[in-house]
Write a structure and sequence with these properties.
Length: 464
């Protein structure tokens, strides 16, 4: 036992001595500095341009020095110039010394200047090199449009922002519950709740912004429990004169990745026909917040007014997209609330982009009770038509997790792969089994887009 401990101590001491040796430090320094030259950072081209400019400047100085040599008689000035130009050394050696020293000076000055300029804008503790590499990678990412609303939309945005900066979230404007509904009724502003959630998900400092934007004032403040984020967006809308300008200004203030857009700027309400479970009678439910509260099965939904005008930039984003993702989110009250805007559905069908549908992991009480993945797709095809989606992404991990009542798993139909391209995967967030894991989902989406996944999995495989 003592021999083992002594041996471990010897290894630790040896490693510490190695880390403090000058040779180790030189190697470590070399690795860190050479990392600035790795492909994709967009730095080497500017270093080469600086070297070219410096070479031209040096050439002009050399012309002047040569002119002094040829025209000025031998004097103290020519002697000093001869010494500074190291004329007592061979020309090849002088070339190596001057060019090497110049290149090193240019390199270190460029790196030092870059660090000092960028560092004030970096998050605390972040590395400049990693931040530059991440920024360059995300800027070159595909144009992705995500349609939906609620927590599902925020979940996928949270993961996608790590892969691309070209994200557009198209958000439903049918929310009429909670703080958003109160602001709609009292002020007449479009509901800011889902906009707020998307902005929070796309921000760099999400943890702090989430706490700030979700902060709700108590009754003693006479603000009816409104969240600070909703009031912030509403205030900017009032200051700028329009809701869309308020969103754009909030996005600039928060420096979010991508952009968030409303599906429509009209005052729309979601309505549904639900068949009660106890009888065969149907009733019309008006208001997104009331649909899920009323028991029964949804037969159809529509917007009131039934043909609202779409927000033009949202149409442009859909038509210019490389990838369109529908979901995850509440099928009727989030996803279909976007699709029911006629120009949105037309643009979705006309777009040449790849189209993915991300199915929910669990059912939505009062909305999709007992639904399978196939049931979700049938409802979407009822309003969009068939063969819209290139890939259906759904969860295949159900074992060992218990769901709280009344949630149930959204399972995969046995014959679904006969008509659709299905990609089942483990999408469950370990801390919240009813939600998607943002990083897993985003990685799968990007791998499918870049075709890095290999053959799509067969749904008849073991679903564990």
């Amino acid at each position: 036992m003592i021999d083992v401990l002594l041996k471990d101590c010897y290894i630790v001491v040896k490693m510490k001595l190695k880390e403090t040796s000058w040779l180790f430090r030189v190697k470590q320094w070399g690795r860190n500095e050479l990392a600035w030259l790795r492909p994709g950072l967009g730095i080497k081209r500017w270093i080469l341009l600086m070297i070219a400019g410096t070479a031209l400047l040096g050439f002009s100085i050399a012309v002047v020095v040569l002119d002094i040599y040829r025209t000025v008689e031998q004097s103290w000035l020519t002697q000093i110039l001869a010494f500074l130009s190291l004329r007592f050394l061979p020309r090849w050696l002088r070339f190596v010394l001057f060019s090497g020293s110049g290149a090193l000076c240019i390199y270190f000055s460029t790196m030092g200047l870059s660090r000092n300029i960028i560092k004030p804008f970096m998050p605390q503790g972040a590395g400049v090199l990693d931040a530059i590499a991440s920024y360059r990678r995300r800027v070159r990412g595909p144009n992705v449009v995500v349609l939906g609303g609620g927590s599902g939309l925020a979940s996928i945005l949270r993961g996608l922002k790590k892969h691309t900066a070209n994200i557009t979230a198209v958000v439903t404007m049918a929310d009429d519950g909670g703080s958003s509904g109160e602001l709609r009724r009292r002020i007449g502003t479009p509901p800011p709740g889902d906009i707020r959630n998307c902005m929070t998900a796309l921000s760099d400092d999400e943890a702090m912004l989430t706490q700030i934007f979700r902060y709700r004032f108590g009754e003693e403040y006479n603000l009816n429990g409104h969240s600070l984020g909703n009031l912030f967006i509403t205030a900017l809308s009032d200051i700028t004169g329009s809701f869309e300008e308020g969103i754009a200004e909030a996005s600039r203030v928060l420096a979010i990745t991508g952009q968030v857009m409303p599906a429509t700027l009209q005052d729309v309400r979601l309505a549904a026909v639900k068949k009660t479970t106890s009888t065969s009678d149907s009733q019309v439910i008006r208001g997104e917040s009331e649909i899920t509260k009323t028991p029964g099965k949804i037969e159809r939904v529509w917007l009131d007014p039934d043909k609202p005008q779409a927000f033009p930039p949202a149409i442009q984003a859909i038509l210019a997209a490389d990838l369109i993702i529908v979901g995850p989110g509440s099928l009727y009250t989030s996803i279909l609330a976007n699709v029911l805007v006629p120009d949105i559905s037309r643009a979705l069908k006309a777009s040449k982009a790849m189209k993915f549908y991300v199915s929910n992991i669990t059912s939505q009480p009062g909305e999709t009770d007992g639904y399978t993945v196939g049931d979700h797709i049938k409802v979407l095809e009822k309003y969009l038509g068939s063969n819209i989606f290139d890939v259906i992404i759904c969860n295949r991990y159900f074992s060992g997790i218990s769901l709280p009542e009344p949630l149930t798993w959204v399972t995969i139909d046995d014959n679904l792969s006969a008509n659709y391209v299905i990609y089942p995967a483990d999408l469950v967030a370990k801390d919240k089994p009813s939600r998607h894991d943002s990083d897993k989902l985003a990685q799968i989406v990007m791998d499918l887009f870049y075709e890095r996944t290999g053959p799509l999995l067969n749904i008849n495989d073991d679903m564990t």
